[in-house]
Amino acid sequence: MIGGVRTPAVDVPVSTLSGSPPPGASVICELFGSATPLSATTLATLYPTKSQYIAEYTRSLDKAINEGYILRADRATMLAQAEQAPIGG
After folding, report:
1. What is the DSSP letter of 22?
2. What is the distance, to the nearest Å, from the Cα of residue 85 to the centroid of all Cα atoms in its chain?
3. Helix and strand counts by DSSP (H, E) for the chain
4. Are 53 and 85 in contact (CB under 8 A)?
5. Are residues 51 and 89 in the same domain?
6. 54 and 34 in one domain?
7. pLDDT of 32
8. Is residue 74, in this structure, part of any structural domain at all?
9. What is the distance between the alpha carbons of residues 52 and 13, in angstroms, rounded to a whole number?
10. What integer best gives the mean pLDDT of the chain?
11. Domain boundaries, position 22
């Protein structure tokens, strides 16, 4: 079973998220943790096409909205950000 709050960043990742700050981070940045982008090879394996990535992202986003974790008002902005993901094809 998968638990916790599921959002597109977790369900349809383009980077790994960590609670650990990057080396040399300022005190304020230490609060936010870090993200490490997935390699182009890994992204191509996970999402052979941009349309597949967007479809998976949209499903996760709509589920999070319906469960009350993300505001419906943020949907368009989040989808626009997803379009900028470094996914080929």
Report:
1. P
2. 9
3. 4, 2
4. yes
5. yes
6. no
7. 82
8. yes
9. 13
10. 91
11. 14-38
- pLDDT of residue 2 exceeding 70, the answer is no
9 part of a folded domain: no
Task: Give how many domains the chain has, as a whole number.
Answer: 2
- Cα separation, 36 vs 15, in Å, equals 5
Question: Which residue(s) pair with 17 in the sheet?
Answer: 35
Residue 89's nearest CA partner among 56, 59, 54 is 54
Same structural domain for residues 29 and 52?
no
Residue 31 has φ and ψ, to the nearest 5°, of -70, -20
| pLDDT tens digit sequence for 43-86 | 999 999 999 999 999 999 999 999 999 999 999 999 999 999 99
User: Are 29 and 54 in a shared domain?
Assistant: no
Q: What is the pTM of this model?
A: 0.84
pLDDT reading at 41 higher than 90: yes
Which DSSP string corresponds to 37-75? EPPHHHHHHH-SSHHHHHHHHHHHHHHHHHTTSS-GGGH
